[in-house]
Design brief:
Rossmann fold, 14 strands, alpha/beta, 21 helices
């Protein structure tokens, strides 16, 4: 039986993915209190739902110290998540009731979600609750739009109007506040000649009317829409306060996330509630080194298309004297010297490719805030930490690119690659010459900066996510990407590695979500509803 925690504010999490937004809300701490709990989360994709359900299991316990060892056996790879159904049946049942696998927009999915919500509303009675989430965002992305076959193809993509399901549930449930997240490309997206974003703002302002134009909503059925990170005038928040659409963009690197991730967040506050919403306050920068610098060193594998054999030999044999001379001529002696030094270290290194669990201590994070957020002292290792295989020729490119970034402080573009290391693609030289969008197709995540945006594309290849240590010659693991997304180490991603990468890339960073949750809680307190 679904139960609402009487001491916490219930949260409905739609289009939840692996649960980044929900994790942020449930881990939000104000004083000694964690004010939010997930009452229902909804996700259609099987492996993301398994991840969501496993995390729900973890959250059923009052404190981390009470989580049973059976949970950690899953993280260690000793048992599958579903084994918890036998080990802890009552808790597993609660997790299954909280995390719903359903597709919004599908009739059966809508019926399942609506039935859950009716049950929750009966339990909640007059209790205030919050709704979070966002429709699938791939159709809004700049690259995704470029690949559409004209505006007709974009208009037929069902993903761009899934926010209507979000509107429908807002109109039917009337939450005290909601948080909607999407990619920045939504600001410039159009249907025909009409920009989508102003329409979405108008719809979210008055959800009932947006669904039925004949409805004349009372003021109490509308929402104030506030940017998360921009100070605003609470007296006039919709249409007349001079807010630019870009005010809704949150630069996550400004708020403690070690990643340059820019996303749109819209917070809706019920107009019958007069509380003040405090925008986020910028914090100090966290870098790639801060969160992955002390993790176990791994090596990549060799692509199955290449002959099996010794990884060290594959790299050493790929770096000829002529390549080193070319590097010296193109990038400078310091870069070729770094490559020689890395080759010497690689020759004497004894590294594994990692696995779904790698033993080791993870408490080497110097920043106290991020250390407390990420580290689980009970875990004593790293789950989802296995390196994938790469082509032999790409290993040498990764070596060069990482050494270049150590010397220059930024990742090289194709124009800065030696001719001998240029990819064997027809458009590579074109991209290098015109410095196009894809001229940085070999992108190193530089040690002393926030990373670039972790996207679902990391599941396809590692060229955009090269590890900054030249002695490892590989792309980031799922766990390293998850740390850059501020997922705690005990957040286990289910499914094959490709699915794990997709889940991490599509998620909201939990740390920034927790800061948004604190502002939402402040509004609810100021409004007197909790």
């Amino acid at each position: 039986m679904i139960m609402i925690d009487p001491d916490r504010i219930p949260v409905l999490d739609l289009f939840a993915g692996p649960g980044g937004l929900g994790e942020g809300f449930t881990r939000c701490r104000v004083g000694n209190r964690r004010p939010f709990s997930i009452a229902m989360s909804v996700e259609k994709e099987r492996n993301a739902h398994r991840t969501l359900r496993l995390r729900s299991f973890y959250r059923q316990y009052a404190s981390p110290s009470k989580v049973p060892q059976a949970f950690y056996r899953v993280l260690l790879g000793e048992t599958p998540p579903e084994a918890l159904a036998d080990a802890c049946p009552d808790t597993w049942q609660l997790a299954e009731e909280e995390a719903l696998q359903a597709e919004l927009g599908d009739d059966s999915g809508n019926e399942a979600v609506d039935a859950r919500i009716r049950t929750l509303k009966r339990q909640a009675k007059e209790k205030a609750f919050v709704m979070i989430g966002g429709p699938p965002c791939q159709a809004y992305s700049l690259v995704g739009r470029a690949r559409q076959r004209g505006i007709e193809g974009f208009g037929k993509d069902p993903r761009h109007i899934l926010y209507l399901q979000y509107l429908r549930i807002i109109a039917n449930t009337w939450p005290a506040a909601f948080v909607m997240e999407n990619v920045k490309g939504i600001l410039s997206s159009k249907l025909g000649n009409e920009r989508i974003f102003p329409r979405i703002l108008e719809d979210l302002h008055d959800p009932a009317k947006s669904l039925d134009k004949n409805v004349r909503s009372r003021n109490s059925r509308r929402y104030r829409l506030v940017p998360v990170a921009t100070p605003v005038d609470d007296t006039d928040l919709f249409g007349h306060s001079g807010i630019n659409p870009r005010d809704y963009v949150v630069r996550c690197e400004d708020y403690g996330v070690p990643q340059k991730r820019h996303r749109v967040f819209i917070v809706g506050l019920r107009e019958d509630l007069s509380g003040h919403f405090e925008p986020l306050t910028p914090s100090h920068r966290i870098t790639v080194r801060d969160v992955i610098g002390g993790m176990p060193e791994l090596r990549s594998g060799l692509s199955p298309r290449e002959a099996t054999g010794d990884w060290q030999h594959a790299i050493r044999s790929g770096v000829s004297d002529s390549i080193l001379r070319s590097v010296t001529e193109t990038a400078g002696l310091s870069v070729s010297t770094l490559m020689r030094q890395a080759l010497e270290s690689i020759a004497g290194a004894d590294r594994t490719r990692g696995s779904e669990f790698v033993a080791g201590q993870g408490s080497d994070i110097n920043d106290e805030c991020i250390r407390r957020w990420i580290i689980d002292e009970r875990l004593n290792g790293f789950c989802n930490h296995s390196a994938r295989s790469h082509m032999r020729s790409d290993l040498v490119r990764y070596l060069f690119a990482a050494c270049y970034s150590l010397n220059a402080g930024h990742s090289p573009t194709l124009a800065e690659f030696p001719a001998d290391l240029m990819p064997n693609h027809k458009n590579a030289q074109v991209a290098a010459n015109d410095r196009s969008l894809f001229a940085d197709r070999f992108r190193v995540q530089v040690w002393d900066r926030p990373s670039t945006t972790i996207t679902s594309h990391i599941s396809k290849d590692g060229h955009y996510f090269i590890h900054p240590d030249p002695e490892q010659c590989r792309s980031l693991t799922v766990r390293e990407a998850a740390r850059l997304q501020t997922f705690p180490d005990n957040y286990f991603f289910c499914g094959p590695r490709t699915s794990q990468y997709v889940q991490v890339g599509n998620a909201v960073p939990p740390l920034v979500a927790s800061r948004i949750a604190a502002s939402v809680y402040g509004f609810l307190i100021d409004s007197g509803v909790v």
